[in-house]
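To whoever is on call:

I kicked off a structure prediction for a single chain this morning and the downstream step that reads the tokens threw a length-mismatch warning. I double-checked the sequence; it's 385 residues and nothing unusual in it as far as I can see. Pasting both halves so you can look.
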Amino acid sequence: MRHILFGLACACLSTLLACTTIADLPQPDLLPDTHGEDLPADAPQDLIENLDQVDPPDSPTPDLTELADTPVADSAPDAVAPDALDTEELGPDLTDLTDTALPTPSVRFLSPANGAHLPNPVTFTFEAHHVATVQILADAWPLAPAPWDPATSASLTYTFSGTGYERTIRLLGHDGTGAVVAEDSLQITVTAPLGPGTSIGTFYNTYYYLANEADYTGAPSANLYAPDCSVIAVVSSSFANSACIEGSAILKDGRVINYHSPCACGGPCSYCWSVLDKNKFPWGKGSRNNPLEPLRSWAVDTSVITHGTILYVEEWDGLNLPAVDGLGGAPHDGCFRADDVGGGITGKHVDIFAGTKAMWRELEKIFPTRTNFTVYIDSPRCQHL
């Protein structure tokens, strides 16, 4: 390196000397010659004696030996061996990210079954994981106005205009950008509309429900008796009166009681009560030891409608039931069953079991008490019951 630098210095000096001519140097009258020739006669003697020892100020001669010995800084960064790198200066270690499995988006139809033949309206249910939105298409036609968040609803009910041929139904799962990241499909055939069945005439409605002690206030003052006259509970008179009207009730302690028989023990309405198996009769018991079912069971006059008869009401078919107290929240199919009787239920009067007092109030807004309906039996639309 020193030999190279020395050579470079020499080359630079040679170039400098080659480019500087006598003509370029200043031509003063006083110093035309560095050896004292042709000096003016009146030049000071000390200038003449020291002239040979003074270098011209404008043309210094560099000491090339020192230049060759001076180390030159290298502007390029030094190479660093990989083992000498400080990994903390390079930021976080991302190698572990390659070992972290990302959640896999998935969607899957739960119903109807692949290849099913079914009538309108068709309800699709599904499950979806790690997707932002879903959409259901029939032969590439979207069944919903726009994709939706499956956390808000995992079902869709649709009425098809065309029937009698097979359709391909696709369930698409999208990511946050709208790209399809998961898919499932099935085939269904929507059958032609079914008739309502055989009409048995026009009936009017009322409602009943499971009386809940928690809905009533007042001091306990009324005894509810078992058939052996033992006291089942002491309740407020307002709750006792409601239990007598509805025929079934639930106590604050969770026990479900049901009308058993007339009672000589006393108490409200002179009824005796039985405590039911809550697992078997969570909503009370019908007239044939059958469990009551909210929004399905009717109390009827058995001289007009036989107990256990399946009934169809067209006005209820497809009705979007309000979601109340864990009930409803889905379209009704229009199908009912004669499960119960009542002392005030005679002739063409049916009592619809609403389940809860709150649901009864909501149904009153849709079909108020004494609304007339045409009732059908033997309906092919209720074959699932």
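Update from on-call: the warning came from a stale cache, not from the record. Cleared it. Sanity check on the structure: The CA atoms of residues 333 and 377 lie 14 Å apart.
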